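Notes to self, Peptidase M23:
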Amino acid sequence: MLPRFSRRALTWVLAAATALLAPTLTPLSPATAAASTTAAATAACPAAGFVSQHFHSGHNGVDIANKVGTPIYAVGDGEVTISGYDNTGYGQWIRVLHPDGRISEYGHMSRRDVSVGDRVAAGQQIALMGSEGQSTGPHLHLRIWSDRSTSRGIDPEVHLAERGIVLPCTPGSGPRPKPLVYPAESGRVVSARSTDGRLELFAAGADGIHHAWQRRANGDWSEWEALGGPRNAELAIAPNADGRLELFALSGTTFEHRWQVSPSGGWSGWQNFGGGGRDTAAGVNADGRIEVYASGPAGLFHRYQLAPHGGWSGWEPTGGGPADSRVEMGKAPDGRLEVFALNGQVLQHRYQTAPNGGWSPWTGFGEGGHDLTVDHNADGRLEVFASGPVGVFHKYQTGRTSWSGWEATGGPADAQLTSERTPDGRVEVFAMNGTTAMHSWQTAVNAPYSAWATFGTGGTEVTAATNADGRIEVFGTSHAGTYHKWQTGFATWSEWLWLNNSSGPAVG
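result:
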């Protein structure tokens, strides 16, 4: 893959959102990073009441209605950057800048309790509900911005749900519902965030596994570190219930794993996890237990933690599944894991019949192909993409266990696939074969997709992850090494670059 610059513009985005800058070269101290992460991870219910208007194309926020004088609370830790009166429609309003760069905005209040420069904590009262400005009745108008320069907010209900707050909510109530932990993409290169917000990256080469990590959340990258482990392995990564990441590496002859010894901390050595196979995927049950699937010539087997961040079961057969298949996991809106397995002849899936529960039999999901990726829409519905000799197709949930038919999307033939969600909740899909890299994105939340656009030249593997501030970062591999490319705004991207000016591992 040769470095190549690519950018696109979405017609509904009115500004390029260029304030999201490329990673800085100034690392935070461990204490500062830890404090920032704690603040970013904290969330709270903004106000009691009912949702009188949701986020949509004509409404840039969510309205929570209640009587005049109802307390309003900060949805997260941060600094008050605006507290005043707006005569264009808001009346009294407040803005809070959060540690991850996002901004919460509150309008139509009858009273403000904080001033510019104040530091507020999640759940701290900042105002009282009113009906000032352009308002038909007392309510809180809540907006969430991904950064300072965008002209279109992101869905506040999605933002809050990802942090464990589901509207309508009761301020101060608990315990808060735990957000779904969606499985990370598996493959020869994988990435996931540590609890402190830093991305960790692993790439499998002919000499074993290599590791690089962000030195601060949203920041620059370390040097590559050689870890040994299985050669030319397929990788999967998942978080334990206590936040420690765990890495799984499968080759044709061996299966090993290693894990962080503390959240965001160092890593253990390699330990045996089973025999060899073709591919693996890992996901997290609704109760926090990791579950691992692996394919081989006899179909698929699985193994799972007996308790959150605890010991493991033995390997169990799954009753079949496609032999020597590519495997990916998804998580349904109600927390049930779903597994998809694809080889050259058939695509099948099976799913938990209840959260943390038993599994359905394998059922047909489509014809065979080259690779697949699974993601979730902003409303939680799963979406599956599969590549083959005539391009990329997709299929999406229409109900709890019902699916659409397969729909052609175009795109490169026999491509490696990955997907991730943009800061405003739209799914974006990346496809790479030996000659080209392309991407396609939802034109609105839960909406149809754009035409495929060039994203770079060809390579061997691709994966995507989300930075702590919501920006997607894409990692591509080739026989020359490992590259990355990241969002600089809603619709703009950096060039393809080496990590830390080093080629890193070659992935064949």
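- Helices lie at 30-41, 156-161.
- The longest helix spans residues 30-41.
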